[in-house]
Design goal:
single chain; about 140 residues; mainly alpha; 5 helices; about 0% strand
Length: about 140
């Protein structure tokens, strides 16, 4: 389980760093001075919805298939969705703190749900141990 965790965590952080670098280059290569960063905002919003949907699907699978809990928890997408949602929440907090974007309701509702999903997934991954069923 530990080697699977390290492999999944390394791949997750590699993908998130690649996403960050792509976002940076998109912003720096944007020639339009009037609406600079609008494409980045769109990509960020679509990534929030992707993380939201991925987190909901993974949590649904986790709670529906009680017999395969360890298989689901060992999968890449379970850890990826938890860390992705936490990463997006941290980016959103930084963007609000530095006044890069304004606080709006549609972002706020999505980011709160992303935070709740990431909290549930990461708490389940790190603190909930396998429960042996009594037959």
């Amino acid at each position: 389980m530990k080697t699977t965790f390290y492999k999944n965590a390394a791949l997750t952080f590699f993908i998130l760093n690649l996403w960050t670098v792509v976002q940076l280059f998109i912003y720096l290569m944007d020639k339009n001075e009037f609406l600079r960063g609008l494409l980045n905002l769109g990509i960020f919003q679509y990534t929030m919805f992707l993380g939201l949907m991925l987190g909901c699907i993974v949590l649904l699978l986790r709670f529906v298939w009680q017999t395969k809990i360890e298989t689901i928890k060992a999968s890449f997408f379970y850890l990826f969705s938890g860390i992705l949602n936490a990463y997006l929440v941290l980016i959103y907090i930084a963007l609000i703190y530095f006044k890069i974007i304004l606080n709006s309701d549609e972002f706020l509702y999505t980011i709160v749900v992303n935070g709740i999903i990431s909290l549930i997934i990461l708490l389940d991954y790190f603190f909930v141990k396998k429960v042996n069923s009594v037959e």
